[in-house]
Amino acid sequence: MTKLNGVTYEATLAVLQELVAERPDYVYNEHGADGQCVYRHGNKPSCIVGHALVRLGFPIKELPNPAGLQSGAVVIAEGAGIRDQDALDLLLRTQINQDSLMPWDEALERARVQVARGLRA
What we know:
mainly alpha, two-stranded antiparallel sheet
């Protein structure tokens, strides 16, 4: 598996903010055949975490499909070498919020506040 060594909270937040700027009102509601959310469809990222990991340098072909449990964001990010706990928490919280059908801008803002309050993955 490819390693994304040195990815920080700040870098993760910046990538997520770029994605939100591109699609602030987007509500993710794409699911695999089993009803679970997915990180990618074919060779394209699907959910916000899939997009973020690819922009951080993780190869699309290494993203699992389907995503499985919400904690999958942390499992994948840790497996990819992300060690910054706040970055991991931000990815997980953003995914959970997105999967609750929040628009991406709201999902990220709520996740940012949750991480600042110390909610851990």
